[in-house]
Amino acid sequence: MPPRPCLLALVAACVPGALHAQQAKWKLPPGGVAIYDADEALEPDPPGGILPGCPLPYATILLQSELAAGGTWVEAEPADWRWIGPHLAFDLRLPASGKVATKLARVPGLGDLDLQGSASTDAATGVQTYELRFTVREPALDSDEKQLRGRDGRPWYGGDGGGSVRLQRHVDAAAGVVESFTAVLELNVTTGPYHGNGPLQGTFTQHWDLDAVHERRARDFQARIDAAIVNGADVIERALRPDRPEFATHHSETEHTCGEGVLALAIQTLLAAERSVESPALQRAFAELHRREIRETYSLAVALLATDQAFAPPLEREHLLRGVIDRPTPRTLPPEHAAKVAEWSARLLQNRDRSVDAAYRSRWWYVGGNGFDNSNTQYAQFGLFAAGLCRQEIGRGVWIAAAEHWLSVQHPAQGSPRSVRLVSLADMDAAATPRTTAGRSVRPRGFGYTVPGDGPAYGSMTCAGIAGMSLCRGALAAGGRSPLDGKLDEAIREGFAWLSANRSVRWNPGPPPLRNTYYFYWLYSLERACELSRTGRIDDWDWYAEGAEVLLALQDVHGHFAQATLEQHCFAVLFLKKAQLPVLTGPR
After folding, report:
1. Average pLDDT over residues 24-52
2. What residue segments make up the domains of the chain, in order of their start?
3. Residue-wise over 256-281: b if at least 16 C-beta within 10 A, else e?
4. What b/e string do you get for 443-481 counting C-beta neighbours within 10 Å, with b at 16 or more?
5. What is the mean pLDDT of residues 364-392?
6. Do 260 and 292 contact (CB within 8 A), yes or no?
7. Are the CB atoms for 359 and 352 separated by under 8 Å?
8. What is the mean pLDDT of residues 91-111?
9. Which CATH number, 1.50.10, 3.40.50, 3.40.30, 2.10.25, labels domain 221-427+446-577?
10. What is the pTM of this model?
11. Is 575 exposed, middle or buried (0-12, 13-18, 19+ CB in 10 A)?
């Protein structure tokens, strides 16, 4: 589905002259962020404290990149109905007094909101008050959305009903920020498929206070990240008990819970967070992993990644980025670990899709048999690349066949050709202007879960494609030039063009309902795709700074990330740590 340059439109119509009295603009620094403390509640309390129709984590911040050109309103689409209040509060085009008629378009689970009412300003305090009523309307749907319906036949947005909003805000026009707002939503709506799919009635009260405004990668940026990694790793270490349900073995032809993979992921994350492999907790965890019979592709791959991480030399990433070494360093393993690497990598190769000749096309599913998906395929490649670093021989033909797979499943072009500039990770912190690759125009082309036609391209799978091709490119480079080098480089650049055109750190980019899914996996996938190819910025998108600010806002004082399972918690820590080693170290 082609991206919409503007999915959210707030258009204020007011009495003549009222708009001209309000000249405030947001003045966030380029790439900066406004961070808010928030107090919110829905009455009556929802069952289990879970708000209906709100599947995504909720970071109460505003990124400068989410503002429209001119800096007067939020252009980014709201993730769910909780964003009605903030989007209205942050719209500095709304009049300070008089009549107000505005539209909030394409609120997920509802549709277009037509709002009407009045505005007034307290002369003594400067507080602006808006009394608005809204009605849910069916939005204009594109062809893909018209086909996307729930079991009851309602479309993706599919909401109805109405309600009211009482909004009070204080705008510091000189500083160019909304200092605080209180929004009271009276809701009497029905949400559509994939967003609660039922009645939503009650009073939702929000109060946001501005806590801080940070420049992009401000002076304390790394210190905040370092603390988040430590606190996040503490949570994982406390959870590292082999008897936890998440780590359980499940051998089933239809259920793929991959308990060994979650155990291995926890080990890998703690090692990436610089916890000692000699610690009793990690020694026990490795012993348990070695005891298990591991069958699934994902679990085998992550077990190999954990082993690779355990024996990686210190400062390897820094040495790669500085050019001290030109490729990752082979590991030296104790015999018991080397034996497991041989066993796991052999089983991983057996899990290739048997419906095609593996000599020409290598792709993977959860277990051996006929079939594949691109998520398991990229994980298999990560595992085999890690096995190669652990001195296990992986034939060059495996990488050629895997490259052929990725080249065959990339989606057709989406949108017009666009110039893509990739800024190297090594240049991101340089005092001078960062060097970039040439801004050559390419067609945005993403990846889906399997083949084009069976589903759309979306963010996490586009990153899987970029990562898989980068691993192939890096592995093949060890043996000299390959006839596939040029094709891989072009396809990787086309994948980055898709990411640039569909950028988001609030949800997994792609059409509904995919954007409601795999959020932490999406960020981790983005980190791996970019780190593998040393990409610190995609055009003007500082993907790491924006993703890190969201994750920092999602982490509580105890180190937990909102709405994250243990596996997702690991993905968040690995993103913050930038744990993936570059494999493409030459000019890009």
Report:
1. 94
2. 13-214, 221-427+446-577
3. bbbbbbbbbbbbbbbbbbebeeeeeb
4. bbbbbbbbebeeebbbbbbbbbbbbbbbbbbbbbbeeee
5. 96
6. yes
7. no
8. 95
9. 1.50.10
10. 0.93
11. buried
